[in-house]
Amino acid sequence: MHLYGTQQINELGHLTIGGVDTIELAKQYGTPLFVYDTALIRKRSRGFIDTFEQLGVKAQVAYASKAFACVAAYQLAAQENLSLDVVSGGELYTAIKAGFPADRIHFHGNNKSIAELELAFETGIGCIVVDNFYEISLIKEIAQQKTQKMKILLRVTPGVEAHTHDFITTGQADSKFGFDLNNGQADEAFKQVVNDEHIELLGLHCHIGSQIFETEGFSLAAGKVMQKMGAWKEQHGFVAQVLNLGGGFGIRYTEEDKPLEPHEYVADMIRTVQDESKKLNLAMPEIWIEPGRSLVGDAGTSLYTIGSQKTVPNVRDYIAVDGGMSDNIRPALYDAKYEAIIANKANDPKTSTYTVAGKLCESGDKLIIDASLQNAHTGDILAMFCTGAYGYSMASNYNRVPRPAVVFVENGEHQLAIKRESYEDLVVNDLPLTLTKGE
Ligand SMILES: *Cc1c(COP(=O)(O)O)cnc(C)c1O
């Protein structure tokens, strides 16, 4: 059995995280419950930051916060000297509310609204990662109105295909994101921004996909983007200060996943940028990266209470839990795989096989197909591992199920980071019917 971060099994045979008994957490806070091992988030963050420091390379490690966003998570990121990627006005608002230093916030997205861009100017964020021509025109307009200058990166698609699931790949030429590096769009975008008095072009950004386990893709993309920087220096005398190589560093969900350590992911790309800089006679740019999943993914564990059980003779045994696709849509959405244990019997051998079903009204609401588990009974607590990224952040109120609570644990202490939604919360925006019934 693979345990993550500070996870251990105590003398009662219970799974503990951060020195706290998960069965006690389930009792105190209820289930479903997300438990975050904040020491592991700190360790992953430092793994990236320290590598750049040790190699003497100027860098920003920006937490791509769409993986898991809330006030406490943003404050943790600030404590660890991370920068922050936001992709919406809502994430930006949350970051500002959390007191996150605005000058280390980067704003992403392929269809930022006027209101969102205005908020970016008003809060004084570090830079906007510009995605398309419409956005360039909006930024110019807003900057002029506000007589304010904005730093930007241009997002480009280098045409490097990451080896990962098709649904979650964004680096191909056929992408909704960014300016194509190879068909003239990136050059046109460069021309539109480089001499604008309200825009300071810091450099280029690319993001080649998600859950990537090899370093070649990052190096290949870095090389291509560097070549464009070289061409712009030669033709226009433009010197890029920043090369942002995105995120997508893979993590272990099941034994099939073989992730690299943070320093391994980063070392190769740094070498490529150093080599290319020399070859192209460019000053070494700052390297920015944007890990999301790899900072929080394996630090999150979902706790559920097992309720009903069903046997389909000669087919499979089901156990049903008190959550499902409303708190983790990844298995239903793209067939994501997870492992789990019965947290109150963690020392028992895994002698049974169950399909873990959610409680939502969809046949596809299954969290794990054919999970190898300890013998399960109603009332047991199921701990599902590695749910820290794109779990809570994609949660919904489907079936009017309140979203779970989120707890942070560290050094034997625990704190609520997000309260469980109540039934009152569910109707807070609902209004009574005022239209009258016709004849
Ligand atoms: C989603 C995203 C990331 C983070 O991806 P992970 O797979 O969570 O590391 C980084 N950069 C951009 C632009 C993204 O859209």
TrEMBL record:
Which branch of life, at top level? Bacteria
Q: Which cofactor does it need?
A: pyridoxal 5'-phosphate
Xref: InterPro entries? Ala_racemase/Decarboxylase_C, DAP_deCOOHase_LysA, De-COase2_C, De-COase2_N, Orn/DAP/Arg_de-COase, PLP-binding_barrel
Q: Where does substrate bind?
A: R293, R330, Y334, E362, Y390
Does the keyword field hold Ubl conjugation? Answer: no
The active-site annotation reads C361 (proton donor)
**Its pathway?**
Amino-acid biosynthesis; L-lysine biosynthesis via DAP pathway; L-lysine from DL-2,6-diaminopimelate: step 1/1
Q: Where is the Orn/DAP/Arg decarboxylase 2 C-terminal domain?
A: 35-388
**Pfam assignment, any one:** Orn_Arg_deC_N
Q: Which UniProt keywords are given for this protein, alphabetically ordered?
A: Amino-acid biosynthesis, Decarboxylase, Lyase, Lysine biosynthesis, Pyridoxal phosphate
Q: What EC number(s) is this enzyme filed under? A: 4.1.1.20
Binding-site residues, pyridoxal 5'-phosphate: G248, E290, P291, G292, R293, Y390
Q: In what residue span(s) does the Orn/DAP/Arg decarboxylase 2 N-terminal domain sit?
A: 48-296
> Is Cell division set as a keyword in this record?
no
Query: CDD domains annotated for this entry?
Result: PLPDE_III_DapDC (cd06828)
Q: Which reaction does it catalyse?
A: meso-2,6-diaminopimelate + H(+) = L-lysine + CO2
Gene Ontology biological-process entries: lysine biosynthetic process via diaminopimelate
In this UniProt entry, the residues modified to N6-(pyridoxal phosphate)lysine are K66
Molecular function (GO) terms for this protein are: diaminopimelate decarboxylase activity; pyridoxal phosphate binding
Role summary? Specifically catalyzes the decarboxylation of meso-diaminopimelate (meso-DAP) to L-lysine.
Q: Which family does it belong to?
A: Belongs to the Orn/Lys/Arg decarboxylase class-II family. LysA subfamily.
UniProt subunit comment: Homodimer.
What is this protein called in UniProt? Diaminopimelate decarboxylase
Tell me which species this is from: Solibacillus isronensis B3W22
